[in-house]
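S.,

Sequence below, as promised.
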Amino acid sequence: MKKIITILVLAFFLAMNSDAQTAYVTDGHNSVWVINAVTNTSITLIPVGYNPVGVSVSPDGTKVYVTNNSDNPDTANTGNTVSIINTATNTVSNTITVGPGPNGICVNSDGSKVYVANSGYETVNIVDALADTILATINLWNSPTGIAVSPNDSNIYVTYGPNKVGVINTATNSVTASITVGTAPNGIAVTPDGTKLYVANGYDSTVSVINTNTNTVVSTILVGHIPKGVCISPDGNRVYVVNYGSSSLSVISTSTNTVIATIPCISLPWGVSITPDGSKVYVAIDCHGGVYVINTATNTITDTILSPTNGSIGFGNFISTYTQPAGIPIFTNESSSVSLYPNPTTYWFTLSYHLSITNSIFKIIDITGRNVYTKNINGTEGKETIDVSNLNSGIYFYQITNEKEVLQGKVIIEK
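The prediction came back faster than expected:
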């Protein structure tokens, strides 16, 4: 009877949680890290090109576009490209060669065009998202980096040079304005109503606020050292800016253009993205690898997700606004190299593992996504006794992560 009840509970839970947001974080090495943004657990790693940096999810959530920033000196050319990920299979469906040093990337509102800032060649590529081909190349000056498109798709905004934001008319593919901002502009984001731009100025430790009707700077906000990624809440009330140099996140009120909170982060935050409901902000940590999850109501860190590759950049919109079937961790890579027995169990089980490298982390996660058990694994092969006597009856999920793999599965506790 216990087994029947457990199976029914699992079926009911998965049916009730058929929608889950997904995050796609570039790691700066050669992969994209996929995260279930409901449970805050890793799903899988997707191999892409060399040095992936920029990322943008299509509006319908079916594709993820990733800029591979440079050539790999040890292998064939896998950089200076854009990888296109099919989110239904979490595999690369196509790769497009673009200009040298592609960095920022964004997608227009209907998903028909993709815009790529090539920092190594002073250009912006416009990509036909249906044919996966380059439609046009627009010349700019001096290292275009961040890029954003207006909500009505009429303009592209690009940070470039020592202190400029370029405005490109998408009807004519011509540069119509050049706006002076702070030194070394980096990340850029436009408000949902399209009236303001927020630009992170890396060497000034400031954010420039631009009125898009007049293309003029209307305010300059002091933030932390070396601001990089920028995102704006869906209601347009808050701007979130990661400060790479001071390891913090600045929260800005758009009504006053002042910093209303500063959240300490550890080890060089780079990218930032927000969930569609605006309840959570995800901050990608470059140095040690991982993502902080921040509750926007309290401006506090509520969870930390460890990267399997010790790298997280996520420069751009890396959280899908689309809900895809997922529920609690998607086990696309459940592996025979890990086994737990007996399963179901009552008070303990044995973890048997054959891993590719040392220094892994084993976690048990409940059906609400809460981490209830953590253990370090220091070898590549062996057995561990896992004491679950303090856990209640129910369905749980285990996860083993290290620099090369993410292994996951299900365990049932019956008492």
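The first strand starts at residue 22 and ends at 26.

Coffee later?
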